[in-house]
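Good morning,

Attaching, inline, the backbone tokens for the sequence recovery test we're adding to the shared suite. The designed sequence is right after.
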């Protein structure tokens, strides 16, 4: 990677500062290096040889949430998150990858069975208190300076993966025609299994057949950290595995996965034999939010009306433009009093594993989100991203709120619960 070829885009910033109002990291830190125009100025300095690549650049390069709020608030619409991702790629090429980075991206994410074994070991440590003991003894520092504090974000881990709880990989549904492939995201597979189970029940209602795909990670985590070689490896593996001709839709209940799968054509070179497959997959991929029009109106068992609000994952709203669909759906439900969340599309600070290395910034961003959740006095906070669910649930616990965090799939099948 050579960011020099993006010089014109980088220097297109007119330093107006409108990105400051929209940037969660800048609002949390107040540092110019933590806002789009500051990051772009840094990249300009590197290209112009006024600054050399070094490990001190890790902070400003990697504390960006890649939420795209800056681009949405930018008159020339400079794609700063994309430029930062490319800069991360060159940074890794120049300075090298850490052991943990290589372990996760080279040896775990491409291989679901290995990932399941690692998750099972983590579940034993988490659920038995061994991780808490290790934290007290300072043993978790090997995973990074913030890992010991961030370890508490997840309250409990399921003992086995969602895939291992599904006996049949081909399921018969109640629908008449639709053939759907269910792309299992890592977050749903390992952590948010109730939501994944709800999605499968939903798909059974609208599809004739559902196939639980033998996919690996979509590649977004590797892309987030700038590891494009692993990103391409994961994308190609999925394209080789998924038989697209069999399905009308490829559905995932992770907005991060759906957003990234739709971008596969931009990843695969046009001279690659998989390019046509990438375009086909992109056209068939559906975020579960897009299925709200296929479903009836659920009726919660609660006799009283419940107050519901919605948090927009960055990969749903800015990544896919899915803003009106969840609101229209929730507003159709008679048993729900929908309350709009102030700054609903403001990042929650989850951003995958962001808190493991930037806990303080992540917590500050989350606190702002929780302030707004409290204003709604909602009984239920709905979203469509497992990473957001994890972080929002942590915020709810820390504030002692009665609000329940639910995936939109869980709301879509409420009449059956």
């Amino acid at each position: 990677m050579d960011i020099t070829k993006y010089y014109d885009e980088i220097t297109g910033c007119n330093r107006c500062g409108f990105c400051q109002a929209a940037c969660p990291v800048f609002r949390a830190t107040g540092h110019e290096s933590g806002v789009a125009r500051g990051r772009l100025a840094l990249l300009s300095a590197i290209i112009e040889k006024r600054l050399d690549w070094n490990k001190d650049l890790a902070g400003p390069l990697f504390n960006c949430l890649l939420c795209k709020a800056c681009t949405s608030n930018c008159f020339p619409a400079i794609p700063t998150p994309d430029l930062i991702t490319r800069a991360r790629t060159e940074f890794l090429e120049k300075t090298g990858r850490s052991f943990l980075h290589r372990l996760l991206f080279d040896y775990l994410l491409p291989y679901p069975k290995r990932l399941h074994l690692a998750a099972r070991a983590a579940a034993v440590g988490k659920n038995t208190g061994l991780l808490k003991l290790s934290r007290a003894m300072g043993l978790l520092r090997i995973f990074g300076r913030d890992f010991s504090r961030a370890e508490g974000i997840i309250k409990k881990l399921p003992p086995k993966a969602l895939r291992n709880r599904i006996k049949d990989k081909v399921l018969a549904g109640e629908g008449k025609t639709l053939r759907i492939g269910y792309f299992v995201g890592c977050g749903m597979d390992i952590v948010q299994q109730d939501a994944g189970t709800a999605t499968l029940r939903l798909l059974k209602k609208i599809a004739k057949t559902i196939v639980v795909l033998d996919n690996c990670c979509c590649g977004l985590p590797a892309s987030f950290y700038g590891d494009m070689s692993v990103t391409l490896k994961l994308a190609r593996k999925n394209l080789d595995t998924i038989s697209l001709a069999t399905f009308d839709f490829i559905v995932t209940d992770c907005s991060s996965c759906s957003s990234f799968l739709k971008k596969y054509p931009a990843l695969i070179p046009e001279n690659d034999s998989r390019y046509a497959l990438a375009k086909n997959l992109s056209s068939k991929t559906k975020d579960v939010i897009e299925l709200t029009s296929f479903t009836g109106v659920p009726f919660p068992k609660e006799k009283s009306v419940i107050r519901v609000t919605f948090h927009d994952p960055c990969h749903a709203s800015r990544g896919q433009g899915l803003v009106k669909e969840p609101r229209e759906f929730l507003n159709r439900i008679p048993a729900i009093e929908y309350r709009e969340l102030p700054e609903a599309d403001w990042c929650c600070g989850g951003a995958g594993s962001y808190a493991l290395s930037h806990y303080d910034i992540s917590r500050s961003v989350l606190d702002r989100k929780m302030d707004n959740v409290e204003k709604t006095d909602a009984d239920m906070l709905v979203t469509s991203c497992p990473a957001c669910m994890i972080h929002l649930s942590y915020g709810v616990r820390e504030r002692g709120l009665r609000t329940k965090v639910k995936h939109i799939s869980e709301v879509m099948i409420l009449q059956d619960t």
